[in-house]
């Protein structure tokens, strides 16, 4: 026979476990593609762009990741990642390009190529961080076509949604960000400093660890509910001393 307390404990534990499963499933779906997460999107600011590499080409380990910079960017500074080597690929202009400050450049960084020192297992993920100076025009969407090369095969994350098309319908969408209105200050912010870049690399797996911690916490809730039920169920009601000479005694 199920007591009211047991029914409540089992219901709460089942609900918690179900929520954990749904959240973990959502996390897995969100990390299925190579994507980019900016620490800021303010027009004219210096931002850290974190590219998540969640899996290989099907079941093949990743050996190289080539990130193409949009035409709106002239350079990007790779943050050191001990698992990869980074190389800048330059593009020479047919004619000098004039910058907003009046100066001109004859070439730009068109691509950042990361090569894995040890192939990245498809069961693991890593994060590659670039420091960039964002354009001044709010509303601009920047796309970063990314070619993921594996020991067997490649995945070209370069699809861009057409006008009116839902980006979620794309099979291999290019990572992208949209520039927002400029914030106060000089736009440089703390992102230009190496200490924050190092922090971004250190915390690159924080999302995975947070979901793992959530699952562990939900599991603890289930076990805690069961333990509480056992402690309640093992305690018997007090028995009054029939002689009336002493207090009630627990058996």
Automatic annotation (TrEMBL):
Ranges annotated as spanning the membrane: none
InterPro entries per record: YcnI-copper_dom, YcnI-like_sf
Pfam name, any one: DUF1775
CDD domains given in the database record: YcnI_like
Top-level taxon of the source organism: Bacteria
Positions of the YncI copper-binding domain: 33-179
Assigned keywords, A-Z: Signal
Signal peptide: 1-32
Region (Disordered) residue spans: 178-198
Protein name, UniProt field: YncI copper-binding domain-containing protein
């Amino acid at each position: 026979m199920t007591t009211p307390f047991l029914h409540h404990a089992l219901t709460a534990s089942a609900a918690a476990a179900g929520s954990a499963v749904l959240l973990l499933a959502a996390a897995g779906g969100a990390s299925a593609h190579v994507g980019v997460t900016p620490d800021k999107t303010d027009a004219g600011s210096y931002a850290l762009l974190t590219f998540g590499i969640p899996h290989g080409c099907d079941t093949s380990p990743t050996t190289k990741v080539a990130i193409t910079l949009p035409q709106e960017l002239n350079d990007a500074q790779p943050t050191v990642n001990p698992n990869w080597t980074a190389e800048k690929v330059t593009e020479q202009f047919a004619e000098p390009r004039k910058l907003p400050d009046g100066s001109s450049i004859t070439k730009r960084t068109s691509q950042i190529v990361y090569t894995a020192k040890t192939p990245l297992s498809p069961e693991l993920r890593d994060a590659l961080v670039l420091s960039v100076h964002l354009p001044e025009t709010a509303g601009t969407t920047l796309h970063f076509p990314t070619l993921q090369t594996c020991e067997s095969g490649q995945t070209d994350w370069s699809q861009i949604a057409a006008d009116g098309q839902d980006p979620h319908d794309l099979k291999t969408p290019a990572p992208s960000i949209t520039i927002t209105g400029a914030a106060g200050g000089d736009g440089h912010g703390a992102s230009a400093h190496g200490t924050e870049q190092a922090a971004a690399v250190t915390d690159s797996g924080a999302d995975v660890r947070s979901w793992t911690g959530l699952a562990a916490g939900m599991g603890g809730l289930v076990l805690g509910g069961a333990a509480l039920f056992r402690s309640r169920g093992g305690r018997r009601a007090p028995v009054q001393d029939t002689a009336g000479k002493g207090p009630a005694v627990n058996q």
